[in-house]
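Cont'd.
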Amino acid sequence: MSTAKKATINTLQAHKLANEKFSMVAAYDATSAKLIEEAGIEVILVGDSLGMVLQGNDSTLPVTVDDIAYHTRCVSRGCSKTLIIGDLPFGSYTTVEQTLRNSVKLMQAGAHMVKFEGGTWLLDSITALTDRGIPVCAHLGLTPQSVNALGGFKVQGREPDRARTILAEAQAVEKAGASMLVLECVPSILATEITQTLAIPVVGIGAGAGTDAQVLVFHDMLGLSSHSPRFVRNFLAECPDVQSALKSFNDCVIDGSFPAAEHGFT
Ligand code: KIV
């Protein structure tokens, strides 16, 4: 166990204030959770990416709240100091009431924070959750649950208007009470601007090196996935075992050597 203290939203906020990077991994079971914690990684996202990675679907849309609750329970049995984020899946947060009900299920399964995808339409839900003691991580940029509306898994925010909208939504989710923000597949320059504008930690994936933290999917960073998006680095290819690959990911995020320019978008 290399994590010195239990990670909380205060720990992550303190990292941002101190200009210290941190890392997060999307993982779904007790064994990987234990390895992740031992590598010193402070946050695990029980992401709806499990719909593609574990269930073999071609999108995250079929994932249910029960799936995320089950995997959150599995992850929480494998670690004790890691902050666990439960991802609300497609269709599970369409109203404030439904969002509260499903967030409670994930918190009772072992999550310490919930995440959902979207901006303006979620502001009331963000406030309702935070008022009731449930920390929220927002998710902007490429929001995979909207793959059909977006016309594919595409980089978001390249056009000036769309970039301004993403920045405005990031400011709005922070104002509504979000404790953290994931930015997925946006130009590095936009992610850096958003990170510098917000007081809350910003976690990037395909968003360049300017964010406060980085997240990758466990299976992707170990080269186990059938696809390898440009923003992924296979850490296992450079290391003798999974444990050292996870540690290398954490070290490279903290020292700023991952992501490199080639992992980002212009
Ligand atoms: O579901 C997931 O794993 C995610 C990350 C890729 C950010 O949302």
